[in-house]
Write a structure and sequence with these properties.
The complex is a heterodimer. Chain A is mainly β. Helices cover 0% and strands 53% of the residues of chain A. In chain A, the strands form two sheets. In chain A, strands 2, 4, 5, 9, 10 and 11 form a six-stranded mixed β-sheet that branches. Classes of the chains: A mainly beta, B mainly beta. At the A-B interface, β5 and β10 of A face β5, β9 and β10 of B.
Chain lengths: 111, 116
Amino acid sequence: TQLLEQSPQFLSIQEGENLTVYCNSSSVFSSLQWYRQEPGEGPVLLVTVVTGGEVKKLKRLTFQFGDARKDSSLHITAAQPGDTGLYLCAGGGTSGSRLTFGEGTQLTVNP
Amino acid sequence: DAGVIQSPRHEVTEMGQEVTLRCKPISGHNSLFWYRQTMMRGLELLIYFNNNVPIDDSGMPEDRFSAKMPNASFSTLKIQPSEPRDSAVYFCASSFTLRGPGDTQYFGPGTRLTVL
């Protein structure tokens, strides 16, 4: 069974601070996705990375896929209250579209 | 497109009753997923279908849970009989599977189920 561990589970910071969320596994994934979920809604895809070592930027968010495709990180620069939400990483296998989700990181950015 | 549609949004029922959750995937998508989300266990995959055929139901908790997809535009998840430990938010998601990495799953708004 492929497992993804996210850390930290909870993070509360002040507006303007930087933060990094980690997603680790002992298994290799063919892709790694990050989703954000807001209260009362389903998760929404932020980014997909498929190549070991790949780095993608989405405004103030930077996503990295580890060289061995076993881990990933999400870095947010100058966090804003609108970044508040549950961040989920999800690993994809080599066949089909089944995803394995991490437990999530609940981020709160205080104004 | 309206996105993935789930109904009802909220369901409160008593232990022992039958519960049916419904999902309409995005038109043109060929894969459909049912997830359950709780504080303790996070987001768990229950079952997924590809081209209306169940591919992996290993996440279905027990025989009380069943899922069907009679056509490409409709799926149901049924719990009979329901128990308090089934209380959770149930999500349906759909995707267009190209048999490659990185397929995007589009989630519905979820059904919050409370079993008393």
